[in-house]
């Protein structure tokens, strides 16, 4: 039988599968990082930062913002690459299609952060006479960050090694990428940025921090969050499936996530210049606890995409909600 024939399927796809549903959601909620975050919003952010007195926005505070964006941009770039082994390891076409859409979306996120640095960060730094830095500068990446992403890369690439593509190792890979990097670290970072740079009901900024509203940055992040709800839901579903159908011990999930949590805490508490790190660490731990409760319960339903990316900030809306 040729590779194109499969007597086990009447049609090629199963649109009723979880992965098929997420793929459809990705198609229906597609956004363009070049068009849907218009230049006018970036220009507004640029002008607001330029108009802010240098005494109000010190170079230290501005560099704290730059570091946050450098971490996000590098993370999106890394996971764009790191997902490739998973797509090669998967053998279900609906899973493969969804992960292909996820790789595309991670690439879009990389592009947004690169564009923001070019069009907003560098011009503002030059305007204020601050040092113009690169988002790839090693000063922005702490050991905890390197350890987390190196571990994620290793967990994914392990699936391509002979004899290593096991249900347990797939669960570890999902725990690294979908449940820690995307579900906990990214969501915590977005919680901090969104609530410190917008008119939010949650105040986690430091008392001496400048009062900034960067609508272009928050708009881009809201679109990115709408994508990541699907990514997180897919990972949670696959882990839950491996536990229920393949007999993977839930301790694999607990031990992997608990091993990675110190890295997350080290990243989100890297600075206290703009945002109080204490509520960020608490937010990350709460997010992790809730994820574990759901995926280790075979009868628990994976929340809707919008719920998975809600930041518990009193606002909660994403472009996907509109």
UniProtKB/TrEMBL annotation:
<dbReference type="InterPro" id="IPR009078">
    <property type="entry name" value="Ferritin-like_SF"/>
</dbReference>
<protein>
    <submittedName>
        <fullName>Ribonucleoside-diphosphate reductase</fullName>
    </submittedName>
</protein>
<dbReference type="GO" id="GO:0016491">
    <property type="term" value="F:oxidoreductase activity"/>
</dbReference>
<dbReference type="InterPro" id="IPR012348">
    <property type="entry name" value="RNR-like"/>
</dbReference>
